[in-house]
Specification:
The protein contains six helices and 18 strands. The protein is α+β, with helices and mostly antiparallel strands. The protein is elongated. The structure holds zinc ion.
């Protein structure tokens, strides 16, 4: 535990926190990996190991409210502002100088803070915690799971939980030519095969069927002939799913699934989209993956991958298999339980489909 802010300078307190003094080269990416302000007013930070943090507090002035900020080595790629709630006005991620990252938390004017009591606690080499305020009313958690690209094939999901103004405005669906396209949506599993079973008994078959039905409606409203391989809990083998698509003039085939991790690990979350081969399948997979990530902030991007699943291998048209999250993962399961999240995923997948049809036709 590292105590800080114990001096009496009030107007402009600057505090230096450290673990080791390794200095990152100017061009390296931000040492800030993830951050969250929890419902109890605690700010949590995850950084690269051995990061030098510098934290500051400034009292309100005419221009802005009380501000707390932390500087990290390494440059942030895309500065942004995230809307707050409760006592927090907004959070800004910026680069004050070349090669730096700054996380600013700006409080609302009437908020009463006690920075002299604040303590930054180092939980381990790369995790930090500081209690900033006591929420007056219920405070909605704000945060980003991955600030910048991580190593390995898990890519950063840089989407914001709160867009600056219009929260889900980006879900506006594009227009495509009516009565021209045909799409087959395949809700995975069904009947005696429930697919993955997740936290609290949540079942893949139920989640993917509901989402598939919403997608079908959204596509139909836009003049696309949409067909589901199943509309209820029936036992449906893989070959008939493929035949449904191959026996029609379907332009694309989209199979919807949810994941489970081996050993039901709650820390494994994320989304991924598979295609079998061809640039069309890949393009469709990329488009859908991009959109589903936008509505799943903080959940890892497991990427667009080639897969040899029966339904995408044997269909004749561009085909993808979407994994919308881990029912066994703490973050994903909590979301996938909610009808609103299912709707957002359905919108996102529909958007990916429409954009593909618009581009490739
Ligand atoms: Zn499945």
């Amino acid at each position: 535990m590292i105590k800080f802010l114990d001096n009496k300078l009030y107007r402009y307190l600057s505090v230096f926190l450290f673990l080791n003094s390794s200095i990152l080269p100017v061009k390296s990416s931000s040492a800030l990996a993830a951050w969250a302000i929890n419902t109890n007013g605690v700010l949590e930070l995850r950084t690269k190991s051995n990061t030098n943090l510098k934290a500051y507090f400034q009292k309100a002035n005419q221009i802005s409210g009380d501000r707390f900020w932390v500087d990290f080595p390494g440059e942030l790629k895309n500065p942004r502002t995230i809307k707050g709630n409760g006592q927090i006005k907004e959070i800004r991620l910026g680069k004050p100088d070349k090669g730096k990252t700054r996380l600013v938390i700006e409080f609302k004017e009437e908020t009463y803070l006690e920075p002299l009591t604040w303590k930054m606690v180092g939980l381990d080499q790369n995790r930090w915690r500081i209690k900033l305020f006591k929420p007056k009313y219920s405070f909605k958690k704000i945060g980003e799971g991955l600030v910048e690209k991580k190593s390995g094939n898990i890519k950063a999901n840089q989407n914001l939980i709160h867009k600056k103004k219009n929260n889900y405005g980006y879900l506006k669906l594009p227009e495509v030519k009516r009565n021209k396209f045909e799409v087959v949506i395949d809700p995975g599993h069904g009947g005696p095969d429930p697919g993955a079973i997740g936290i609290g008994g949540i079942r893949e078959t139920d989640v993917v069927l509901e989402i598939s039905k919403i997608i079908k409606n959204l596509l139909s409203e836009r003049g696309i002939k949409a067909r589901l391989t199943r509309t209820n809990e029936v036992d449906l083998d893989l070959p008939p799913r493929v035949s449904i698509a191959n026996n029609t003039d379907a332009d694309i085939f989209v199979s919807i699934h949810a994941n489970a991790s081996r050993g039901k690990r709650r820390d494994i979350n994320g989304l991924e989209t598979f295609y079998y081969r061809g640039w069309r399948g890949r393009l469709l997979a990329k488009g859908i993956q991009k959109e589903i990530l936008r509505v799943s902030p903080g959940s890892p991007d497991r990427g667009v991958k080639q897969g040899r699943f029966y339904v995408i291998k044997n269909t004749r048209m561009p085909a993808v298999l979407v994994e919308i999250g881990f029912l066994t993962g703490r973050l994903d399961a909590r979301r996938l339980e909610k009808i609103n999240h299912r709707k957002r995923l359905a919108y996102a997948i529909t958007k990916g489909i429409l954009e593909y049809l618009d581009k490739v036709g």
